[in-house]
From TrEMBL:
NCBIfam families named in the record: cztR_silR_copR
GO biological process, one term: regulation of DNA-templated transcription
Source organism of this protein record: Pseudomonas turukhanskensis
CDD domains found in the cross-reference section: REC_OmpR_CusR-like, trans_reg_C
Protein's name according to its UniProt entry: DNA-binding response regulator
SMART domains the record matches: REC, Trans_reg_C
Domain Response regulatory: start-end pairs: 2-115
Superkingdom of source: Bacteria
DNA-binding region per UniProt: 123-221
One CC-aspect GO term: protein-DNA complex
InterPro entries: CheY-like_superfamily, CusR-like, OmpR/PhoB-type_DNA-bd, Sig_transdc_resp-reg_receiver, WalR-like, WH-like_DNA-bd_sf
Keyword set, alphabetical order: DNA-binding, Phosphoprotein, Transcription, Transcription regulation, Two-component regulatory system
């Protein structure tokens, strides 16, 4: 089992590397958020142990980057002990949260629990009313009719249907679909939504893509 440890305190990192290695794990260490990002994107790990306060990218930012492309279990190990910090970590996609100072025995128990779970299996099929998205075959149908979508249109629809009923801002959509920071002067999201609507909604009486003024877009069945 391979573990990525992203920890800027050298003594803590050395202590954890030694302990986890003696427990039978292969451990890679990064001392900054940017180094952690590079390792997480270039190599496959079974678990990531992540501090919050890191140079370069902080732990919150690094977790968001990781979650764009993978569901590797993530354990936050940090001195940030406020309830709102724990809630934020879990809402961003962490699987567990342990506060420093910590017991190594507890850390090891949590590591073993997360590794037993394994990564969650990604949902392969999405269905909303008469709209069906098949992720594996990369096919979309409405009322049994095959819809021809570009790669970006498919990615946009996948994002919307996987977050059914949730209002997504233009910034969230731009980040997830185009991996870009949203510029208010750029209408790339609005143009993409308009093109997607032309294929997914315009030929059908039931409209599924909705604009929430001043907030963003949502995919939902509305009365």
């Amino acid at each position: 089992m391979r573990i990525l440890l992203v920890e800027d305190e050298v003594k803590t990192a050395d202590y954890l590397r030694k302990g986890l290695s003696e427990s039978g794990y292969l451990v890679e260490v990064a001392h900054s958020g940017l180094d952690g990002q590079h390792l997480a994107q270039e190599h496959a790990f079974d678990l990531i142990i992540l501090d919050v306060q890191l140079p370069g990218l902080d732990g919150w930012q690094l977790l968001q980057i990781i979650r764009r492309t993978q569901q590797t279990p993530v354990l936050f190990l940090t001195a940030r002990d406020a309830v709102e910090d724990r809630v934020k970590g879990l809402e961003l996609g962490a699987d567990d949260y342990l506060v420093k100072p910590f017991s190594y025995a507890e850390l090891l128990a949590r590591v073993r629990t997360l590794l037993r779970r394994g990564p969650p299996r990604e949902v392969e099929h999405f269905l909303l009313a008469d709209l069906h998205l098949d992720l594996l075959r990369r096919q979309v149908t409405r009322q049994g009719q095959r819809l021809s979508l570009t790669n970006k249109e498919f990615a946009l629809l996948h994002l919307l249907i996987s977050r059914e009923g949730e209002v997504l801002s233009r910034a969230q959509i731009a980040s997830q679909v185009w991996q870009m920071n949203f510029d208010s002067d750029t209408n790339v999201v609005d143009v993409a939504i308009r093109r997607l609507r032309a294929k997914v909604d315009d030929p059908f009486s039931l409209k599924l893509i909705h604009t929430v003024r001043g907030m963003g877009y949502t995919l939902a069945v509305q009365p």
